[in-house]
Amino acid sequence: MAEIDRFLDFLVKHDGSDLMIMSGSKSVVRVHGELRPITFGKNSGVLTNEVVKPLVYEILTDRQIKVLEEEGELDLAYELPGVSRFRSNVYTQSHGIAIAFRAIPSKIRSLDELGFPPGLKKLASTQRGFVLVCGPSGCGKTTTLASMVDYVNRSRQCHIITIEEPIEYLHNNVNSIITQRQVGPHTESFSSALRVAVRQDPDVIMVGEMRDLETISTALTTAETGALVFGTLHTDNAAKTINRIVNVFPFEQRNQVRTLLSETLTGVVAQHLLRRADGSGMVAAAEILIGIPAISNAIREGKIEQMISIMQTGRKFGMQILDEHLLELVQACIVTPEEARKKARNKRLFE
After folding, report:
1. Which of 104, 136, 155 is the C-terminal boundary of a domain?
2. Which of 50, 28, 169 is nearest to 100 (CA)?
3. What is the band of 106 on the pLDDT scale with cuts at 50, 70, 90?
4. 6 and 40 in contact (C-beta within 8 Å)?
5. pLDDT tens, 145-161?
6. Which whole number is the average pLDDT over 115-143?
7. Domain containing 38 — which CATH number?
8. What are the counts of helices (DSSP H) followed by strands (DSSP E) for the chain?
9. pTM for the complete prediction?
10. 135, 267, 295, 320: which could form a disulfide with 139 (CB 3.0–4.6 Å)?
């Protein structure tokens, strides 16, 4: 058993989401959004690089150590059998080595268990198009994507390809066949994996992160060919998501991109995590856009400001704006008005 496993076991037992072990600092866990220091015997107080480095290197392969020492950072997945899997990032900083862990539950929760409205099932049920799950870091995008992939896996017979860095949730074949690929060991990059995916007979492709123009462009053209493509962006609402995609392209290509996006976009889920009123954990609030003709026209014509009013009147299609979901959570006493106000677009609703 690796020494660092004791920290990870503590994280899971205390319902934490993240663990950070850093040279020059105390170790901390994040529980329900709040940071709390942790100590273990000789590893108490501020840790030196001489303490942290062997803790980290014990769980790395020789190849991973080489990448870390050459590039100064490394993404990996780590599993503590019987406890949990963890998404990890090792990096160097001014005081030495540091590592951050994000706990990944072994069980993939269903969309119903996550508390999402039926609009997400509608998006996951489509046969083709482009579906984006967005939100700030740590808002649960990976969990939502895993649940949507699991919904497809249980409800359809198809070939699903996931492209991740690293592989986080592990999927077992149910009604579908799932191929999980990791950037680094299995493929050079997200964009290169996407380019060859069309030759692997996919029905559904999940892209763990869309970081650059090449990946976004390839995802759009892949959706145009007839596959269902899931992806993520670090934007906090549907309108910003559309603008981010369009604006990543050179100015002279943007009209063409708007047309392509209007034809392929199936939907956008922009989510945030809020503390529950009873202190028992976190709950997701989501804005949902569905690519109905009115939305497609607004994208094609560059009239993104019209999308909010279309979403407000489009509940029968499964759409909702974030403030509507926040109000529902407050009225059900799931979150406090103060907590909802932090995420709301119209803060006066919660005063």
Report:
1. 104
2. 28
3. confident
4. yes
5. 999 999 999 999 999 99
6. 90
7. 3.30.450.90
8. 13, 13
9. 0.85
10. 135
